[in-house]
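User: Predict the complex.
Assistant: Input components as received:
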Amino acid sequence: MAAKPIEGEKKVFVTGNEATAWAALAAGADIMYGYPITPQNEIMHYWTRLAPKHGKKFLQTEDEISAGFTCLGGVFSGKKAFTATAGPGNTLMQEPMSMAEMMRVPAVFVICQRGGPSTATVIYSQQETTLTCFGGNGEGLRIVYSTESHQELFDYTIKAFNTAWKYRFPTFVLGDGYQSKMRESLVMYDPEARGIEMVKPEPIVRKPGIPGVDRKPIHLRNTYNMEDELYDAVMDIVNDFKKMSPEVVEYATFDCEDADVLILAHGVVSRAAQGAVKQLREEGLKVGHFRPITLRPFPQEELKKYAKKAKNILVVESAYGQFDKMVKENIYGVSTPIKQYFRPGEGITVEEVVQEAKELI
Amino acid sequence: MSIQPQMPKSWCLETKPHKFCPGCGHPMLLKALGEVIDEFEIADKVVFGCDIGCSLLAWDFFNVDTIQTHHGRTTPVIVGIKRADEEVIGIAYMGDGGGYAIGSQHLVNAAARNDKVFVLLANNTQYGMTGGQMAPTTLPGQKTETSPYGRDVEATGPPFQGPEMVTAISQEGAYVARATVANPRQLKKIIKRAVENVKEGRGFSFVEVLSLCPTNWRTNAEQTWKFVEDDMAKYFKIGELKVPGESKEG
Amino acid sequence: MDIPIVEAYIGEYASGKSENAVNRALWLKNQGRKVTLADLDIVEPFYTLRPIKKKLEEMGIEVMAWESRKTMGLGETGNIIKPELRWVLKRPGDLILDVGYGVEGAKTLNLVHGAYDNPYLKIYAVINVSRPMTSTVPDIVEYIKYLGRVDGIINNTHLGDETDIEVIQNGAKIVNEASQELKIPVIFTSVEKHHQDILGNRDCAGNPVFYIQRFMSETFW
Amino acid sequence: MANGTKIALAGEGGQGVQSVANILVEAAYEEGKEALYIPNFGVEQRGGVSIAYVQISERAIGSPKFKFADIVIALSDRAVRRTQKYVNKDTLFVYDSAIKGIENDLPKNAKKIIGIPAIDVAKEEFHPRVFNVIIMGAVIGMTGVVTEIQAKAAIEKKLGYKFEQDPKLRELNFKALERGIDLVKDQV
C-alpha cells in the first residue's frame, strides 16, 4: 500500500474523470458507491483501479437510488464517502440527496452533466444546474461548485470533502461531459503538502461506548409530525446555510470593473466567455465576465455590484435558462437589460460569445 | 402498566410505552430482536435502520444507534454502513411494502451480493401506516382500501413470496427464514440465528415475520390470531428456508 | 345511572361523520351528561379530531385521540389507534365514536372491546347526497348495505357555504326513500344553525332536524 | 500558433481518428505545450462518424469546443459532409482522395482543399492498419504542432509494448508517419 496516493506535485495530462478519481484519493476519500452511467463511468473505472492499492473501497449498486443511499450509509459510519452520476441518474439520486439535506449528511456528489430532458445525449449540457442546486423536495440547502477545467475538478473535489465535513451539508462538484471526457493538463498534488488542512470525518452513529449505558443512543430521523416542528428543523438548516455562505461563496471576475457588457456564465462555458473577453478587449471593447464558482450558495452581492455598473448583461449557458433564472433571482432590483444566449445540450464557442456580445455594443 | 420486568435491556425505557397500536405485531417482533441483542451483548455494534411505514415508529425504540431512512431505502443505507465499517452489525427493519414493493430492487441485490446485513421484514399483508392499502403480500380476496372488492389475483398477482425469492437468489452463507409472531419461541430462535449469521460474517440474513395488524384488519383478538394462523399460514410457509451448513429449524 | 348513549358514526370519505359526532357529543354535554368522544378514524386520522382535541376538551368533552405532536411518523398520515381506545366502553357515561371511512365500514368496531355485545350501541351511517358516491337512492342503498350493520341513517346533505334549503330538502327526500327501501330509520337531518329560522324542526320528509355548528373546517392542518 | 491550432479529425468508427488525436495531444503535452482533446462520443461512437476535436497551443486553452477549425481532416464520405460546418475562409480542408462521390460536397469556402492518397498508400506501401499513422504524419506535416521526434516518442509510448514483441512494427509505424508528413510536404 502506497503511503500517499500523490507525493508532492505532478503535472499530468488526463481526462476529467481521471482527475476526479485522483482528487478523491488525494482528499482521503474512503469509499465510493456508484452505478454506471455515461459520461461518469471512468470515475468509477479509475477509482476501482486505484482504490484497492490504497486500502480504499468501492461498491457498485443496483441503481442510483441505492448508490446515493449507500453513500449516505458510508458517511453515517464516519467515512469520507462519495458517488458520481449524470442525467437520469442524477434525477434518481435526488431522493438520497434530499435525505442528506434534511439530515445534514456530508456526502460528496460529483455530477457529470449530460443532455436532457430524459435520456437525451450522453455528451454534454448544463441542464442539470437546477436539479443539482434545487432538486428533491426541499430548499436547495446544498453546496454546489461548478467547475470549468481539470485543474478545478481536482481542486474542488478535494475542497468538496472539506467543505462537506466542515459545514455538514451535502456538497456537489458540478462538472459536465466535456470536462469528464476531454484531456487536458493539470497539476495534481498532495493537498496537505500544499498546506491545505484536511477536515477529519467522524462517525455519526456508533460513537464510542455502549448506547443506553455509557451514553444516550443516537436516534436519527427525517420525519416530523407537526408543521411548527418541521418549520423549526428546516429553519435551523436554513440559518446554518446562511451563516456558512459568506465563508463558502466563490466567484471569479474577468475585466468586470469597467465593463459595459457583462457576460455571465458558469462551468465550462465560462471558458468561452473568458476567451471572448480577451478577444474583445484586444479590439478595445469594454467587455467583462463574471463567473460564480459556487452556484449554491450564490455570490449574490458580488454579482449585483458588477451587474449594476454594466450597461448590458449577456447570460450564456448550455441550457434553456436554468442559470438565467438563478441570475435574475440574485440580481433582483438591478435594472440592467439582460440578453440571453441559450444552447441547451450544446457546447458554446468563443466565436459565438464574441458575436453575441458585439451585438450589445 | 408494569411491563417493565419483561422489557429487554436494549429497549429504550424513555420512549416506552411505545406508539404501536394495541395488538400490533411489531412490538412482539421487536421484543424478540431486543432479547437477541441482549443475549449477544451487541448493543454497541448494532446499527438499526428503520423504514417508512409503521416500522418507523421503532426509530427511538432501542438503546441502539438508529437511523430512520426513506421508504424502501433502509437496506441500501445499512449496506452502505456495513461496507464502510465492517464491524457493524447492520439490521434493516421494514414492512412488506418497503421490502417487496418500493425497495424490492435493494432486497434483491443485497441478497445477490451477499451483503452481510440482516433484513428483518414484518409482513402484515397491507400498508398499515398509510391507511390499509393493498400490498404485495395481501391475500387473495382480502379487502383493503385499494382493493375494496377484495384482491383480484388475476389483476394484481398472488401474495408475494419473499423468503422463497431470496432463497432462490441468495448465496452460500445466507440465512433465510419465515417466522410468525404466533410462535414467539421459534421467532426468537430464528431472529437469533439470523443475527448470528451476520455477526459471524457468514452472509446475508433475511427473515420475514408474519405480523399482526388488528387495526387495519378490523379484527378483534380472536379474529386477529385466526387471520395470522389460518389465513396467512395458507400462503406463507413458516420455517427456515436456507441455513449455512446446518439443519433447518422447521 | 340512566341508560348510556353509545353511538358510532360511520360513512363515506368527507360525508360529515366527525362533524356530526362532535356536535352530538357537545349536545349531550349541554344536556348535563358526561361524554367521551373517541377517534376511531384510522384511514385518514390526521384530518379528523386530533387538531381540535384541545379545543373540544376545553368545552368539557373528553376526547380520546392522539395528539398530533405525540405521534412520530404520523406525518405519513398514520393510523395508529390509542391503546385506551380498546377499552373505551368500560368508561362511565355516554360514548360517541367517530369511526371514519374505509372499506370495512362498521367492522372497525371490532377494535373496541365488547362493542358488538354492547346493548346500547347504535351505528349511524352519515350520508351527504352531494357526495358523488352517494347521490342517488340506489347508490345509497348499495353503499349502506356494504357497510355491514347500520342502525340508523343521518342525512347530512350540504354543499358547504353554498348550501341552501333546496339542497337540504332534496337530500332529505332522497335519503328518506333509501331509508324506506333499506328499512333503516332516518335518525335526523343535520343542518347548520343559520338555516334554523327557515327550516324549523322537521325536514320535508318529516325527520327531526339537528342543528350543528361546523368545527371540522379547522382540522385541515 | 499564438492562438493555438484547432484541428477537427473525422472518420468512420474504426478508422482510428480518436487514437490519432490521443497520440497527437500526448506528444504536444510532452513537448510542453497546452493541449486539449475532446472526442465526440455517444451514439456515434459505434458505427457512426467519429470526430475528434483537438487544440494545441502555447497558451492556456479556452473553450473545448470551437466553431471553425484551422484544419479539418475528413476520412470518409460521411465525414466530408459532416465536417463542412467547421470550415471557414482560414481552414485547410484535407480529405482522402480515394473517397468516391463527394466532389460536390467539398466545401467551397475553405482556404485550401487538399486531397491526399492515404488510404491507397497504406494499402499499397504499408498495411491498412497504419492508415491512421499516415494521417497523423499529414497533420504534423501541415501544422507543425509537434515535432516528428516527439510524435515518434508518443507512438513509442502508446505502442511500445507491441513493438517489443515485434520490432518490425516500430519501423512500419515510423515509416508510415514519415510518409504522411511527406504526402503534404508541398501542399501548404
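Chain D has six helices and six strands.
Let me know if you want any component modeled separately.
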